[in-house]
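Exercise 7. Given the components listed, write out the predicted structure of the assembled complex. Treat all entries as one system.
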Amino acid sequence: MDLNGLYQEIILDHYKHPRGKVVLEAPLASAHHVNPTCGDEVTVEVAADDHGHLVIGYQGQGCSISQASASVMAELLEGASVDESVSVREAFVAMMHSQGNSEPDEDVIGDGVAFAGVAKYPARVKCALLPWMALQDAEIKAGLMAPKEETR
Amino acid sequence: MDLNGLYQEIILDHYKHPRGKVVLEAPLASAHHVNPTCGDEVTVEVAADDHGHLVIGYQGQGCSISQASASVMAELLEGASVDESVSVREAFVAMMHSQGNSEPDEDVIGDGVAFAGVAKYPARVKCALLPWMALQDAEIKAGLMAPKEETR
Amino acid sequence: MNTFDPSRIKLDFPILQRTVRDGQKLVYLDSAATSQKPNSVIQAERDYYETCNAAVHRGAHQLAEEATDAYESARVAIAGFVSAAPSEIVYTKNSTEALNLVAYAFSNATALHRASGNPPQDPRFILTDEHNIVVSEMEHHANLVPWQELCAKTGAQLRWIPLTDDGRLDLASLDSLIDQNTKAVSIVHQSNLLGTINPVVAVMERAHSVGAIGIVDACQSIPHMPVRIRELGADLVVWSGHKMLGPSGIGFLWGESEILDSIPPFITGGSMIEIVQLDHSTYAKAPKRFEAGTQMVSQAIGMHAAVEYLTALGMDAVEAHEHSLTGYALDQLANVSGVTVIGPTENVARGSAISFTVDGLHPHDVGQVLDSRGVAVRVGHHCAWPTCRRFNVPSTTRLSTYIYNDTSDIDAAISGIVAAQEFFGVI
Amino acid sequence: MNTFDPSRIKLDFPILQRTVRDGQKLVYLDSAATSQKPNSVIQAERDYYETCNAAVHRGAHQLAEEATDAYESARVAIAGFVSAAPSEIVYTKNSTEALNLVAYAFSNATALHRASGNPPQDPRFILTDEHNIVVSEMEHHANLVPWQELCAKTGAQLRWIPLTDDGRLDLASLDSLIDQNTKAVSIVHQSNLLGTINPVVAVMERAHSVGAIGIVDACQSIPHMPVRIRELGADLVVWSGHKMLGPSGIGFLWGESEILDSIPPFITGGSMIEIVQLDHSTYAKAPKRFEAGTQMVSQAIGMHAAVEYLTALGMDAVEAHEHSLTGYALDQLANVSGVTVIGPTENVARGSAISFTVDGLHPHDVGQVLDSRGVAVRVGHHCAWPTCRRFNVPSTTRLSTYIYNDTSDIDAAISGIVAAQEFFGVI
Ligand SMILES: Cc1ncc(COP(=O)(O)O)c(C=O)c1O
Ligand SMILES: Cc1ncc(COP(=O)(O)O)c(C=O)c1O
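Answer.
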């Protein structure tokens, strides 16, 4: 098995040097998500700046995949509009559900492309999605986006 | 399959011409037993005459095996002592649990020997035992014998 | 599509090649009790154990991934078979467990509500002694006894829709039976004793008009006819795998997600939780919420093969085949003097289970003579004892067919009945 | 007796011949989750479906006779395996169902008592908010969550026996924890996370001294050591078939007949009744009382083959083999720097499940690296989340052995752990 395909350098780098792992001073809302199988947890906080752009913070503990995913997400979406965050999330989720058969677009999901290999391991897909689902929840709670049915 | 081995002439005869199928005037006790699978029922009543000998009556509805067995039992044990009824019952029960591999003693169980073939058909063993178990129950209720653990 | 050919289908079922009672061909007419299993189902279970057996939804290793995938693919296939979404299908051990899960929804919600009200319970499931539950007089014990126990625990009242003499639901008093205090209405789709197919849509509509939860026992219908589950009009539907070519040990509860998620957990433990603290826990959403403990994985996988087998035959074709076989059997039985069919004698809105009595003979004895000739039928009250009482019979003999039966099987049963009459000298 | 030879035993398990992750040999170290199945078990189920599949305890035909006989013979064999009487063995779908059956004994008896008192319920099972239930801090969710739910429904209080730092029950406060108001004490025999073997006899004795019902979760002990069930000192004992070579979908409840017959029915429906009227029913004695609906027949028959396989090996030999393998694994793990075993490190009163953490690595990542090398272990909280919290770890990596494992399997795991440390650059 190709361990390097799963744990790409970018992932290991984000795991060891997480970006954006901060506590916000005045979050509009936060969401705490847990993976009931392995106990991984992440809390994502959101706020909006004067232009309505996202300010993101998170805390968490868990495996390299879930924690690197949170770091990639925070870096990528900091300062993005809510609409952008939605389309990036949709692209990321689609890639994770592709079982490894997608051609992810680096222009859209940035370092997120490193998780393409994770999509081949069903048990790890949930790890990668954990922070993204928490962000979605936080955005809804903050009133930044309307609740909608999306793949969990 | 040997239908005549199962339904011996004696059985068919008792089925068509039941002996002792009477309601007692002053029973000491009665017991109503049901086969929960097929709904067969029998009610056995007991009394004792001046010598402490059994007086037996029964009513019932059910298949040829259960009804013939009641008739054979009533005929055989009418006027017997309680001790005799116990040893006859034990012999009959032992034969029914032998899976057809016993040499029943006609001197002890009389027409009951006709049920030797029934012992090969597990689903019918319960039919044959139904009235015998009801009699045991009635004897216990009537205070004629002490409750004891016996094969159901 | 190929024409429907039971003699070719029979070849897929190893057990139908065996002989019984001293070398006689087996004529299996007891599929309403349990169906036989084709090679593909037996092989699917075996393959699972030989290649990817593991605990599902728990491990990170390759076997666990493969097992989880097979287990969930089976759910997709089973859901597809009844036109449902996979998340609406709960695996249980049999339909009896599924019906109990539903009855316990009410007793558990009521107990939790009375004890502390925390977490708050859905009012649709909270009962007092002012409420009532409605079933019918033709229910299988599995759809009767759990409701009796629920009523004993909560003080609610149990009511029954009565039957007509030809074995149909008597709906004349439906509107007074199902009233503003009715909290659940649970009805069999096709009776396992009478064969009657009930107008469940009308009954479910009445249930919904008073805000009651509507439940359909589809144990005898889903194996035998195409069912688009939402078209039954129910909130919850149960059925069993073993009656439709699947392994023993698996059954199903279908429910709208909104309803399933409102039901408090039934069997609790591993795999159905969200977060567990020492003093309390929170729970996953359905279907996981109801699948505590290590699941019947190989059985789900066997079921996958079973629905594929039936889908390949086409459920329309299965229904048509059984309908014509039922018509044939009813006609043949009508020709035997002394035989009385218990249940509809007209081949309309009726399935393939046919119960009957024979004058002067006990059903058990009829069954025994048939068995002596290799014909396997069921005798007794068929777990519907109150239905027997309604028709004043202690029990019946029942023949029931499936995809592997043909008219020669019916003929064997008919000559067996006549042989029984001769043997016992009643003709 | 032959010497115990895992390499020969392995040949009986088809799945252990397969490769994983690009042609690597499968090293299966996840038997505490579920065991693999030998040919004889797989074949027994297949034979059943191919020769005598039928509904048990119901039909009068030859198949039904044979199926009933096979089903009940399995019960005799399973009872014999733990030195119990067949009538004391209840089939359930898994041990989780069995534990729920026991917890529901209390909630059902309490609800029936409160509603009408008719039929009268055994006072041992009636709870008020003055009562309490005692478990331990090392319970599997299956032996924790049902008791939480019971307490939520009845107002009773849940208490836990705490743990020592080396993963043993801390019995110092046993006599105050289990007091005159304790109605049930339910304890795991061998922890699936820590590996600890608990002094259940002492705990059960204390339970009995205050009149409480004593329950033992033997899921991880009966597969791995000889158990004479009465010697556990409990009233009720549960375990699962799939962890001891048997099929998925079957578990067991053992109880003294006197106790079993005092428990109100749990899942109700067909086959568990005595007489059914429309408005109420009476019930069969145990074990039938608890086996409603069409049962897991092929699974019971597979289990029969499983206990025969284990009996032929000899449970003393199985225990000795695993004990020495556990000692070897503990020694090897002690040699890897950065590894911390969660649970007893001394190979005394401990079984073969070994949980550990690796400094700087998340358990999930350790498991993934092992998996990439063909080594199947379990990662997570192992359905014992509160136990993880007690030891301040979010989760662990766990290796667990069985009859088909040998020291080379342990060696493969050890080199995998070191490889993980290298890959993530923590050494
Ligand atoms: C100690 C213990 N108890 C209970 C269970 C639950 O067993 P099952 O999932 O077979 O119901 C398990 C296994 O998962 C266990 O290890
Ligand atoms: C109509 C009906 N309902 C419920 C059941 C119970 O199904 P199971 O025994 O598989 O739980 C059956 C079959 O026995 C049935 O025919």
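Discussion: The interface with chain A takes residues 21-22, 24, 362-365, 368-369, 371-373, 379-381, 385, 388, 394-395, 423-424 of chain D (CB under 8 Å). Chain D has two domains: 6-30+315-423, 46-310.
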